[in-house]
Amino acid sequence: MVRVDGNGNGTSLIRVRNLDKKYQRGSEEIHVLQGLNLDVEQGDFVAFMGPSGSGKTTLLNLLGGLDVPTSGSITVAGDEVTAMSAKKLTGWRARHVGFIFQMYNLIPVLTAFGNVELPLLLTRLSKAQRRKHVETVLDLVGLADRMHHYPRQLSGGQEQRVAIARAIVTDPTFLLADEPTGDLDRRSADEIMELIGRLVHEHGKTVLMVTHDPRAADRAHAVLHLDKGVLVESAGEAPRR
Amino acid sequence: MAIPLAYNVRSVRQRWTSSIVAVLGIAGTVGVFVAMLSMARGFKATLVASGSPGNVIVRRAGATSEMESVVDLAQVRVMESAPGVQHDDDGPLVSAEVVVVAAFPLRKTGTDANVQVRGVSPKALAVRDTFKITSGRFFEPGLAELVVGSNASRAYSGFEVGSSLRFGGAEWKVVGVFNAGGSAFDSELWCDANVLNQTYQRPQNIFQSMTAHLRSPDDFQRFKDAVTTDPRLAVQVDREVDYYEKQSRQLTLMITVLGTLVALVMGVGAVFGALNTMYSAVAERRREIATMRALGFGGAAVVLSFVVESLFIALVGGVIGCVAVLPINGLTTGTMNWQTFSHLAFAFRITPDLMVIGIVFALLMGLVGGVPPAIRAARRPVAAALREL
Ligand SMILES: Nc1ncnc2c1ncn2[C@@H]1O[C@H](COP(=O)(O)OP(=O)(O)OP(=O)(O)O)[C@@H](O)[C@H]1O
Ligand SMILES: [Mg+2]
């Protein structure tokens, strides 16, 4: 069960309490998140919606340990992320978070294989084991035959599938996706959402996704809106799939 | 584990127009550096090769060079019978010698340059037993005949066997060419010491130095002790090798210092080139860096990666610089030998260790040019960099 009232019980995988984020722009202070609460359980698929500038990316960056909040706490699988040093946070990201970006963010000079292998270089896996893992996930996203292609030789949808493979190859605790279909045409977007849906339903992944696309949000277990710095549940309960 | 090297190598290739600035800057600097040092090496090698390990050179005590030394025949006679001196069928292997300097036109430019003319004893070739007559013959004692060093015969016009030269108020005939193994003697003219003294109207039986061939290099101390303690003599004794090595020191040092200074000035420029290339690489790859940080690569891994990239660029530059100057290896050039005020031919010598020094110098430039941009790359906040397009 996804909750936004701060009353989640101890079973939640991700627990966010009183999260505050302020940005300083010149003399002006922007209070983006204002005491935000969130509970997400293992296997949940959450969609965040909200107008541009409402703080969706900010929230995702905080959840993924890419940025630090002004105050409040984030706890993932018992680890208090917000209490970690920068160095510890880096290692934590490698083990627990899989990022999927709107612009894919593949390394242009590395092949699909090289891109997916990248996070595995931070593990103790041998070269042969890495190869096996990479082949498995590239097969899962349907790009086994594009292994040695460079990003510029792939379509946007294919690039995003490589990025998803890269995000799941280390089997992280949860996936963060910031508008994963935002740069794709309808068809490719549907394919990507299909893939993310499969990761949740067939592989039990926990996914937190920002999207502007109601069709994409429809696939999530819960759709949460960012409004005035806090999360509110969607008026109509999102259909469960 | 670190960010893979392939990432840097391919990035450098991808951005080759920017990389080439740094590569060429470093290549040019290393090239000049190696060329200058090879000149110093070649000069030194030429002079050092002039000495034979079994030979000693005797000069008047206190004389810094042959030019200002005086040794008379009586002294030579005393030293001939000193212990350690090698004898052949005709007696002791010693050569009492005089040197003068005469100007001759260089083949290349037609302008005059000084050549050292050495008056030697007829035994001179036996004393320096590695030297060989390569064409013609050795001079006849008592005649105004010259044998020409192989470099001198190449560098000056009119030194062909059979031709006649005028200097010191006499007419000389070139009768042979000798090869002295690329040493300083190859830039000299040799003739009979007594004839040279007569021609220059110098007193007979006064020489400037005496070179003796010892039975073995180990006899040096015995010979030295004997002649330096003899009250009839006031001389200094050096191994010939040491004498020429000392002669090479000043100019070798000068070329080395000059070469290093020039290389340092150029190196500053090359470092700025490398800095520029690396700063723009870091700027262009903000998102890539942020992505890797997001994936869990630490700041140290990013610093290392960009330093390695800069070192890679420097290595390419260093190798290109070394390879580019390699053709000058063995090329003959000339300089004034300030010890004798005569022209000395020598060859550039690019040895493997010199290339290693050049590559190390290149890597040093790469390091200095790579560290600041690498630190900047690692310092940039990840979340902010990911927002930029
Ligand atoms: N580093 C920063 N410094 C100052 N202000 C910032 C910074 N990052 C974000 N902001 C501001 O915080 C607010 C929230 O930004 P955020 O990117 O989280 O919004 P978003 O909901 O993801 O918007 P979009 O739908 O356009 O992606 C915006 O007003 C933005 O300008
Ligand atoms: Mg956003």
Account of the protein in words:
The complex is a heterodimer of chains A (241) and B (389). With 241 residues, chain A is of the alpha/beta class. Helix content of chain A is 30%, strand content 25%. Chain A has seven helices and ten strands. Chain A has a six-stranded mixed β-sheet, sandwiched between helices. A four-stranded antiparallel β-sheet of chain A has the order 2-1-4-5, covered by helices on one side. In chain A, helix 5 packs parallel to helix 6. The two termini of chain A are 14 Å apart. Chain B has 389 residues and is α+β, with helices and mostly antiparallel strands. Chain B folds into two domains: 5-48 and 247-387, no CATH class; 62-233, no CATH class. Chain B is 50% helix and 22% strand. Chain B has helices at 5-14, 16-50, 73-80, 124-127, 150-155, 193-199, 220-229, 240-284, 286-295, 299-325, 352-379, 382-387; strands at 55-60, 71-72, 87-88, 91-92, 94-105, 112-120, 132-136, 145-149, 164-167, 170-179, 188-192, 206-207, 209-213, 235-239, 332-337, 342-347. In chain B, the strands form four sheets. In chain B, strands 1, 5, 6, 7, 8, 9, 10, 11, 13 and 14 form a ten-stranded mixed β-sheet that branches. In chain B, helix 1 packs across helix 2, helix 2 packs antiparallel against helix 8 and helix 8 (240-284) runs parallel beside helix 11. The mean pLDDT of chain B is 91. Classes of the chains: A alpha/beta (241), B alpha+beta (389). Chain A binds chain B through residues 57, 61, 64, 66-67, 87, 90-91, 93-95, 97, 99, 101, 103, 105, 107-110, 114, 118-119, 121-122, 166, and chain B through 1-4, 6-7, 10-11, 14, 287-288, 291-299, 381-383, 386-387, 389. The complex binds adenosine-5'-triphosphate (ATP) and magnesium ion (MG). Magnesium ion binds at residues 56-57, 178 of chain A.
